[in-house]
Amino acid sequence: MDKFDIVIIGSGPGGYVAAIRAGQLGLKTAIIEKDKELGGTCLNIGCIPSKALLASSDHFVFAKKEAVKHGIMIENATVDLNKMLQRKDKVVKTMNTGVRSLMKTNKVTTFEGLGTITAPGKVSVKGSDGSTQEIETKNIIIATGSVPVELPFAKFDGKTIVSSTEALSFTDPPKKLMVIGAGAIGLELGSVWNRLGSEVTILEFLPRIAVGFDLELSNLLQRALTAQGITFHLEAKVSAVEVNNGGATTTAAKGSEQLKFEADKVLVSVGRKPFSAGLGAEQAGVEFDEKKRIKVDKRFKTIVDGIYAIGDVIAGPMLAHKAEDEGIACVEGIAGKDGHINYDAIAGIIYTNPELAGVGLTEEQAKEQGIEYRVGKFPFRANGRAVANEELDGMVKFIADAKTDRILGAHILQHAASELIAEAVSVIEFGGSSEDIGRTTHAHPTLSEAVKEAALNVEKRALHILNR
Ligand code: NAI
User: Fold this and answer.
1) Are 205 and 241 within one domain?
2) From the CB of residue 444, how many other CB atoms can be counted at a distance below 10 Å?
3) DSSP E strand boundaries for 99-246
4) Is the distance from the beta carbon of residue 206 to the nearest atom of ligand 1 less than 6 Å?
5) Which of 321, 411, 442, 444 is catalytic?
6) Tens digits of residue pLDDT in 74-99
7) Rounded distance, CA 21 to CA 410, Å?
8) Domain residue limits at 424
9) Rounded distance, CA 280 to CA 297, Å?
10) Predicted confidence (pLDDT) per residue in 335-363, tens digit
11) Is a pLDDT exceeding 80 seen at residue 161?
């Protein structure tokens, strides 16, 4: 077999996008995937199926509770969960087919099996039938992603104590769902099952939800989700989960109080950890940090020549778009180009309703770093389009440098926050100021006018506001 220029191990958004870019640059490229389908966690058991269920369950809530406000009378809206899950699976299939076609179009060779680095420049692929193929390559990119963190006292059994994977496919809404961890996964999947009728309780170790996001907006999100029926217990340290007939008892300490909860299912969503089992990276001389993440330099090269790593398996936020852009920058670097990624301009999003989106510094981080900053906020209840849409929750919040007005952070809580945040990301990428957004004409009536108004309000000159 010919020698490849690049062999990528793992076909998640990091790996498959790197493969596309390598193909575009005319490099002879292969991608190895141990699972049947391409696309990794994000496409198969993460971002995409969860967004499918979030969309469906949001429509159900609209039919049941919101439609009437618009004068639409829907009596007895019910859920055919089987059909909802089938649609989700179809969405995933469509995307699987898409990625496979993209590999073909970009002349990327696909290998199915577990990829192991046997030496720099050599990778073996072990198929599920036991067969082994040896591949030679000039460069290897490790893009093996991450797996859910397990609690020592609550090992996943796939039935009662579950990870996000199983929580995407419950065949009935659990009567009571216990969620451990109020991060992106707990809040999103907690929302899905709450909307579909489960009694959802979320236990969080920290005194707040959505850690990493601006505290003020996280607190507003907690209030909105509480109003939707989710119960939160913060500063709750879970110490035991005991599986009993058909359910589980979760024990948690909250201050001096001992809390006990019965539930049919327990979703453990306390973070993810890098995955590199069976990869042979350590034997090949690749270095890991204390969190078992692969150490790389600015160009994603490990200490071994010809071996690179990107995405969840290295440091940084575990986000698909971060992995994608690292994949592109890594491949461009290998091809002798100037790969670029700006870690200050990577948005994080929690796709609840309202959605929570943030990019750059939170107000707390600006304070901690001793930066002199100004804040501009604007509530959606003062935005015409939000009022017309009957989506009044939330606000836009900018953090701008007090001296230069450069935007340091932007935070949005709104049904469409995931889309609205893109404007702030672009302006941060270009090093823009709040004035730049404030002086830009935004179409009327749009939700994006609230972004403009919040930017204007850094100077305390928002227009449609009664009290600043
Ligand atoms: P996370 O790290 O976002 O949140 C985990 C939460 O669990 C934290 O708030 C933590 O304080 C809490 N926790 C940890 N141990 C606990 C314990 N023993 N008892 C109670 N609470 C405890 O992790 P999550 O939600 O599992 O997500 C994993 C990764 O996947 C994250 O990096 C996340 O960014 C990413 N992800 C991103 C999504 C998105 O962009 N929308 C969606 C899903 C996941």
Assistant:
1) yes
2) 10
3) 108-112, 114-119, 122-126, 132-142, 146-148, 161-162, 176-180, 199-203, 231-233, 237-244
4) yes
5) 444
6) 999 999 999 999 999 999 999 999 99
7) 30
8) 345-459
9) 20
10) 999 988 999 999 999 999 999 999 999 99
11) yes
* CATH number (domain holding residue 259): 3.50.50.60
Q: Does one domain contain both 8 and 135?
A: yes
CA of 14 to the centre of ligand 1 (A): 20
**CATH number where 351 lies:** 3.30.390.30
Check: CB of residue 143 under 8 Å from CB of residue 261: no
Note if 444 is an active site residue: yes
Query: CA 229 from chain center: how many Å?
Result: 23
Count up the domains in the chain and report the number: 3
Residues 173 and 256 in one domain: yes
Cα Rg, the chain, nearest whole Å: 23
Ligand 1: atom nearest CA of 206 is: 11
Q: Ligand 1: does its nearest atom lie under 6 Å from the Cβ of 168?
A: no
What pLDDT does 339 receive? 86
Q: CA–CA separation, 267 vs 403, rounded Å?
A: 46
Q: Is residue 267 within a helix (H) or strand (E), and if so which, with residue range? A: strand 265-268
Per-residue pLDDT at 150: 97
Give the residue, out of 270, 349, 352, 421, with the most ligand 1 atoms within 8 A of its beta carbon, to mutate for a pocket test.
Answer: 270
Query: Does residue 23 surpass a pLDDT of 80?
Result: yes
Same domain, 436 and 376: yes
Asked whether the predicted pLDDT for residue 468 surpasses 70, the reply is: no
- Are residues 97 and 221 both part of a single domain? no
371-417 residue pLDDT tens: 999 999 999 999 999 999 999 999 999 999 999 999 999 999 999 99
Verify that 82 and 177 share a domain, yes or no: no
284 and 299 inside one domain:
yes
Task: Please tell me the residue having the least CA distance from ligand 1 atom 34.
Answer: 318
- Report if residue 153 sits inside a domain: no
* pLDDT at res. 398: 98
Q: Ligand 1 in contact with 315 (CB < 6 A)?
A: no
How far is the C-alpha of 322 from the C-alpha of 342, rounded, in Å? 9
